[in-house]
Design brief:
By secondary structure, the chain is mostly helical. It contains 3 helices and no strands. The termini are far apart.
């Protein structure tokens, strides 16, 4: 089958263009929370509603935190006002929480 190659992974064909990789759903994509909130995509979908397909499998990191978009925007603004990255701000808060927890013991 001839590759169509318009999607992010360049592996699609004309027949599979908007289909997600075998065994994957929208919920497995790093963009799923944003797109389901903004556009109503369902995490159980096995096709992408965005052309070209931009499926990118989530990777779990120890510093990755799921949060509502409004909270994310507020934290990003706070970080910018303090001249640090959002990741640095979150890590500082988490380190402080761990320190406080250890001091309570």
């Amino acid at each position: 089958m001839k590759k169509h190659g318009c999607c992010t992974d360049k592996e699609c064909t004309l027949e599979t263009c908007m289909e997600l990789p075998e065994g994957k759903t929208c919920g497995d994509c790093e963009f799923s929370e944003t797109r389901s909130t903004m556009f109503g995509c369902k995490p159980s979908d096995t096709h992408c509603d965005f052309f070209p397909r931009k499926f990118n499998e989530k990777t779990v990191k120890t510093t990755q935190i799921a949060m509502p978009i409004k909270l994310h925007k507020k934290l990003k603004l706070l970080a910018a006002n303090q001249g640090v990255t959002l990741k640095a701000l979150i890590l500082a808060v988490l380190e402080k929480e761990v320190e406080d927890e250890n001091n309570r013991k």
